[in-house]
Give the backbone structure.
Amino acid sequence: MIKVTRRRFLHRAVTAGAIFAAPSTGRTKAFGRVRGANEAIGVAVVGLRGRGQAHLQMIAATKGLRLVALCDVDPAVLVENVRKIESRGGKVAGFADVRKLLDLKDVDAVTIATPNHWHALIGIWTCQAGKDVYVEKPVSHHLWEGRMLVEAARKHTRIVQTGTQARANPDILEALAWLRAGNLGAIRYAHGMCYKPRMSIGKFGRGEIPPGLDYDLWTGPAPLKPLSRKNLHYDWHWFYDYGNGDLGNQGIHEMDLARWFVGHKTLSRRVMSIGGRLGYDDDGETPNTQLVWHVYDGPPILFEVRGLPKSKADQADPALWSKSMDCPAGFRGGRTIGVIVVCEGGKMIIDDGGQALLAMDPQGKIIKRFEKKDPQRGIGWTKGDGFIFENWVAAMRSRKAADLAAEILEGHLSSALCHTGMISHRLGRGASPEEILEQIRADRVASEHFEDMKEHLRRNEIDFTPCPLVLGPCLTFDPARERFTDSEPANRLLRRADRKPFVVPEVV
């Protein structure tokens, strides 16, 4: 292996990103090569922080995959990851610009772990290049581009897996089959929860862009603006240009589980959001407290985000901030991330992607536990990462999208439920708790959960006079057309005008 110094590699990586100056929008490059039955699938990882590290671990642990390339706009992150791989005897190519990476014939598939605003566009480009895709959740930053990614997968016959890994977890599959066999009777509704305390990101942040990072490329299709937060990384989740709040960050996992367990194959007919960014004054834009109500012809889905700890006293103690939260019966304590499927004969508890799975009768007595099938496989398999990567490999071998546990259409629909809920919030207005309750009083379940939200905020000493809750409009939606039928302002938020040259094509 040729030794590459840090300086030499850094120059090569940055140059590789700069050479390819314009995207190949609308172009199909059928690079997909024919592999032998036992030949390893060459994989590239795009985005090397956070979930990108999990991708690297699962590629190394999954038989049939071979890591051939890495991509990140931060040269320091890119160099460090190449160094780690080379120190273990591996060899990979490094790129700053994903478009140049897609020219590599040795890359058969790409995993995407970038910020949300890049997910769909990179996925579409990858499909056009004749390569398969694993795209992190949410699969899109807004609804329209998610549908375009589905169309790209269909047109170019690509195997596109969504990173909602719980769908490949055998324990959850067993629980789903047991529920659908009617053991708890008819489903009344699903209650998804992201009770995950988040600290303030601070006020008037003017962070520094890491040395060498291509901020124009990091921004991609989003509007190019000065950095207005202390941290470039991660805190983008709380800004509408790049992220989708906790509803589309952690919450997408539970939204997907809720939709899957109740059996809905489309988007909801009506959606409404209540919430706000409460409890602290910072630079973030997205709500940290939210109640979203999706109405279907069948069982509805109610989803909650709670970003504050259990009480004001817990806020004051950093040791308790991330641990203290309301926990319904059946959850393990601490954070509450999961789904309760409420049925006529009891309820199903799905805690944190299957960390705990159990069924209860109407009195709260546990009547069945679903034990882990393969507890010896390690942390990657605990939440389903390993299982979903193995499933992806099997589908790439069979060339049958139907073999995927989390096929891209499923990812699009669940992501879109998060998007439409956030659209209602963004079109909302300040309202008192009394006015909100009057609006939803006819729905007993929604009213009960709103009262629970008020109690949680009361314990955090929230004063609704200077900081009112935001009451979003109840929007009517056409699932077949994927358009709102009663609000053009809402329809305008289904997509955005991408920044050239990083434009999602009208024809994929």
In short: Residues 374 and 381 are 8 Å apart (CA to CA).
